Amino acid sequence: MGTGIVSTLLHNLPYNGIWLYWISVVIFALNVFLFCVFLLISILRYAIYPEIWVVMIRHPAQSLFLGTFPMGLATIINMIVFVCVPAWGTWAVYLAWGLWWFDAAVSIFTCFYLPFMIMYVHKTELSGMTAAWLLPIVAPIVAAASGGVVAESLPNPQHVLWTVIVSYVLWGTGVPLAMVVLVVYFQRLTMHKLPPREVIVSVFLPLGPLGQGGFALMQLGKVALTTFPVTDTLVVPSGHAGEILYVVGWMMALIMWGFGLVWLFFALASITRSRFPFNMGWWGFTFPLGVFTVSTTTLGKELPSRFFSVLGTVFSVMVTLLWIVVATGTVQKAIYGNLIFAPCLKDLEGKEEQGEKHFKKSARHSV
């Protein structure tokens, strides 16, 4: 997710150059490589050790990160549209479209199933809640934004219409639920103070649904502006249904951007009050800040506004530098082998110990 959003930011930088384009292509290729390698590793892990999947899906924290899979794939889909479609032609459009349908289905699954697991299986307290609850919920919001990007490149107006409508539904499944979680999370912060320093970086995660949700509305509104009149969709007396969605989408995006500023302040103020060690949670910096930056640059493009364009450029450079820092730290820690940690394995070890005790006890009784 973090690597993919950096490639997108550099490709769509308001003040761009050919050298930045090729850097974005290199990072895009790196993102595809990382995604495929870790997907293969994950498949092998759960195929060889299926018992790990069971304890992972029931773990109250680790299971939430399943939502990062469709979000990481969405960054690849977007760059296929930006880079591969102009270079390879129509077949690349339908490659992106097919991947998007798969991504949308997985996003819906994570948004529906994992929050239900919190209600039905996990035993949680308000003091132990983190913003990681947003991860499976943000997935359909990211898919909605990606749907707007893909729809803009589809040649068939009817296919565009289907994609836009489904994307609005995806937006509706994710954003309202994310707002509900933000209310609960705000209550948790006010009643139980800041999260532990090991997960303090999670305070940036609320920027994800606000930034990506705003961008999705602007992108879908832009596509509806040109598609609805062609497909005779929502034929109203004024004949301006697409324009209404475009303007309302921009207005809502601006409101969500302003709400994002509040959470950006909370996040920056929180990390200044805590000294936290480097861990995998540092990747929580990059994607939320990245999608908030995407919303910023899109506002600058649609207005148009030099203020938002300059601010988006500054944010893009900061996110890129932050990505370099986090990526460098990740490589260093991975070499020494003290970075990767699977908390669900403790539950598996506990079950194995209970099984051994039960077996020994049964053996004594039988003797």
Automatic annotation (TrEMBL):
InterPro entries: SLAC1/Mae1/Ssu1/TehA, Sulfite_efflux_TDT, Voltage-dep_anion_channel_sf. GO terms for molecular function: sulfite transmembrane transporter activity. It is a multi-pass membrane protein. CDD domains: TDT_SSU1. The keyword Signal does not apply. GO terms for cellular component: plasma membrane. This is Sulfite efflux pump SSU1. The lineage of its organism: Eukaryota, Fungi, Dikarya, Ascomycota, Pezizomycotina.
